[in-house]
Every structure is written in structure tokens, then in C-alpha cells.
Write a structure and sequence with these properties.
Number of strands of chain B: 0
Largest sheet of chain A: none
Chains: A mainly alpha (about 120), B mainly alpha (about 120), C mainly alpha (about 150)
Largest interface: A-B, 53 and 54 residues
Oligomer: heterotrimer
Number of helices of chain B: 4
Distance between the termini of chain A: 24 Å
Helix content of chain A: 55-70%
Order of helices and strands of chain B: HHHH
């Protein structure tokens, strides 16, 4: 059982390396994603953002303009995710007064405790 | 050949980090160690995106008044950086929730080893 | 279990350093327009300055700096600021989150967008700070350090 798991992991790693052989060289300015026009004819996203960020928002930092202006809806959803995670932690881990006292009496060093 | 290796060794190093994270998630018996494997996996994915955004002889995606905004080949691509900012913070929040669940499991079953945990869940 | 003895060097250094980390975090949030930075980075730095005192001096003394009950309400306030900026743009004629329609007089549309980005980044920084400190406090709820 363990041998099959190891072989599957190695096979997955080899598959990923085979897939990465088709990627363009790192840092190539002529790669498809950095061009002015995408293969479908629409303007390429990153070059459009670079050229128009200061004109649209008077802000030199292009990453902030994309995060808060062009893709502001995604940032709103992500902030909701953070708030939900905080609420989940509160709801899972809160304790009422009696249950916390009862758990302190059984103690942490009982015979069943194994880490 | 040398150009090919120089252009791709970054991706192979990131794939090695990914495999380390997957190894930790699958082969370790302790729940906390599995969570650490998941965090390593997330870091590998983030580094892959940021590594794919680079361009040779290009500068930070902050507008430089000397360079101007006309040529897009002088700045590295800002889109991947924006997406990964979101991904980092969501990863932190997800790790917080995961550790809250691990603490709750420990309070109920008094163990974090996976095999012992499964036995206690079946018997209780 | 080893009992944690409070170390005077760590306490002294943490008390001195924590306000400066907070100041630097505010700098990172407000200069997100002109240099790398912004809401998420500044919010995490603010949370780090609060968690430093919680780790160095214990949770009870750290309530003097930032009370634990304020965690989740401030997070909701941050999301509300973000939503409010988008909703104000909706009420004054534009689409949701189109900052060009915010009702501030005497600015062009591009400068209004800059103002809208600043408000949104403040909201994000506040929410990230409050929720990270709240997650830490919830994970440590049943622990007494005597």
C-alpha cells in the first residue's frame, strides 16, 4: 500500500515536470501572456493595465490600481472570506463557562492523551 | 540547451517544493504535520505565479516618470502579483480555520494521530 | 510543563518596538499609491505589532493595548467601509464600485478614483488587522498563563 503511494507521488512529479517543459522561458518578453494582443484578438490584460493605470486612476502603483479599481469586486469577495474565517474560528472555539471548567478537571495529562 | 535549462530551472525547483508539500500531506500520520504540508503546498503555488510574471531587464510595476507608461515591456506583469496578494491572505485565513478544527478535534478525542483517531471515532 | 518566566529584556524591547511597527504599518497603507504596499500588507503589519505584545507580556496585559472583544466588530466595520464606498457610488448615479461617481466636489474622475482606492485600502487594512488578532485570541482561549 505504501509502495503504491510512493509510486503515485513520483509519477505525479514526473507528470508536472513534463508539463513544465512546454512553458515559455522565464523572463521572456515575447511570451504569449505579455503581448499586446492575445491570440483571440482582444487586448492582452497585463499590457493594457500597464499602459492605462496612471491615466485612469492617477496612481503610480499599478498593482494597487488593479487590486482596488479594475478587480475591486474580487477584493470585496476576498475580504468577505477573511471575515467569514474569523467568525468560523470564533464559533468553533468558544466555550461556555461550565464546559471549560469541566474540561479543566479532567486535565490534559490523562492516559488517553497522545500527540 | 543551456538556454532551456536556465529558463526552466525555476519551475523545477518550485515543483520540488510542491512534491515536498504533497508528501507531507499524504504520508504523515499527525494532523498538524498534514497542515504544515498544506501550507508548503500553498507557498509553492504562490511562488509559481510570481515567478511566471518576470521579464528580463524590467522594473517594479510602479510607474517611473523617467520611463513612462507607453512601453509595456519595461515593467513586469502586475496581474499575477495582484492575484497572489489575495491568495496569501486567504491562505492565512484558511490555516487559521484549519488549526481551529484541529484544536476542536483534540478537545473531543484527546489525540491527533490519524490511526488512533479513526479507531476512537468508530467506537464512540 | 515548563513555567514561562517573563524576561525583562523581551518585555522592554517589545514595548519600545511595537509603536514603531504600528507607525510603519500606517505608512505602508497610506503610501500604497506611490510605492509597493497597500491594504493587505499594512493590515498584516498592524496585526504583527499587536501580536508582539500578546506574545511577550501575556494576553491579560495586552488587553490594555487592544481589547479582545473588539476583534470581530472592527472586522465587520472594515468590510462595511468597503461596501459603503461601492454603495455610495451606486446611489449617486454610477455602477457599483465605480469610484468616478463619488460625491466629492471639485475633483476630476481620475482623482476621484484615487480617493476611492484610498478609502477601500483603509477598510481592507482595518479588517485584516482585526481578524488576524481575533483568530489568535480564539486559538488561545482556554490557556491560562499563571
Amino acid at each position: 500500500m505504501k509502495a503504491v503511494n510512493h509510486l503515485l507521488l513520483i509519477f505525479f512529479g514526473a507528470l508536472l515536470i513534463y508539463a513544465s517543459l512546454g512553458l515559455p522561458n522565464r523572463g521572456d518578453s515575447e511570451a504569449v501572456m505579455h503581448r499586446e494582443k492575445s491570440p483571440a484578438g482582444s487586448p492582452g490584460a497585463s499590457s493594457y493595465y500597464i499602459r492605462n493605470a496612471y491615466k485612469d486612476a492617477q496612481t503610480p502603483n499599478m498593482v494597487t490600481v488593479i487590486l482596488a479599481d479594475y478587480r475591486g469586486y474580487d477584493t470585496l469577495g476576498e475580504e468577505t472570506v477573511i471575515l467569514t474565517a474569523g467568525l468560523i474560528c470564533y464559533l468553533i472555539l468558544r466555550r461556555n463557562g461550565t464546559s471549560s471548567r469541566r474540561r479543566e478537571e479532567t486535565g490534559e495529562e490523562g492516559a488517553d492523551a497522545q500527540i | 540547451m543551456i538556454d532551456f535549462i536556465l529558463g526552466h530551472y525555476v519551475y523545477w525547483a518550485i515543483i520540488a517544493l510542491l512534491i515536498i508539500g504533497l508528501y507531507g500531506m499524504i504520508f504523515k500520520n499527525n494532523l498538524a504535520k498534514k497542515l504544515i504540508g498544506m501550507t508548503i503546498f500553498q507557498v509553492a503555488i504562490i511562488m509559481f505565479y510570481v515567478a511566471s510574471a518576470s521579464k528580463w531587464a524590467a522594473t517594479v510595476p510602479v510607474l517611473d516618470t523617467a520611463l513612462g507608461a507607453a512601453e509595456a515591456a519595461k515593467y513586469i506583469s502586475p496581474l499575477q502579483h495582484c492575484l497572489m496578494l489575495t491568495a496569501i491572505v486567504v491562505g492565512v485565513a484558511t490555516s487559521g480555520v484549519a488549526f481551529a478544527l484541529v484544536i476542536s478535534i483534540f478537545r473531543t478525542y484527546k489525540t491527533l494521530t490519524e490511526s488512533v483517531l479513526l479507531e476512537r471515532m468508530k467506537s464512540s | 510543563m515548563l513555567k514561562y518566566k517573563y524576561n525583562p529584556i523581551i518585555l522592554m524591547v517589545s514595548r519600545v518596538v511595537s509603536p514603531f511597527i504600528m507607525l510603519f504599518a500606517l505608512y505602508v497603507i497610506f503610501h500604497g499609491h506611490y510605492s509597493p504596499g497597500g491594504g493587505f500588507q499594512g493590515g498584516t503589519l498592524l496585526a504583527a505589532s499587536l501580536l508582539l505584545i500578546r506574545l511577550a507580556a501575556g494576553s491579560e496585559i495586552a488587553q490594555l493595548q487592544f481589547r479582545s472583544v473588539l476583534g470581530t466588530p472592527l472586522g465587520s466595520l472594515g468590510v462595511l467601509i468597503y461596501f459603503g464606498a461601492g454603495f455610495t457610488a451606486l446611489l449617486f448615479g454610477g455602477q457599483f464600485l465605480n469610484y468616478g461617481f463619488l460625491p466629492v466636489a471639485g475633483l476630476t474622475a481620475a482623482e476621484l478614483r484615487s480617493l476611492g482606492i484610498l478609502m477601500v485600502e483603509i477598510g481592507v487594512g482595518l479588517a485584516v488587522m482585526a481578524i488576524l488578532v481575533a483568530i489568535y485570541d480564539d486559538l488561545l482561549e482556554g490557556y491560562q498563563d499563571d
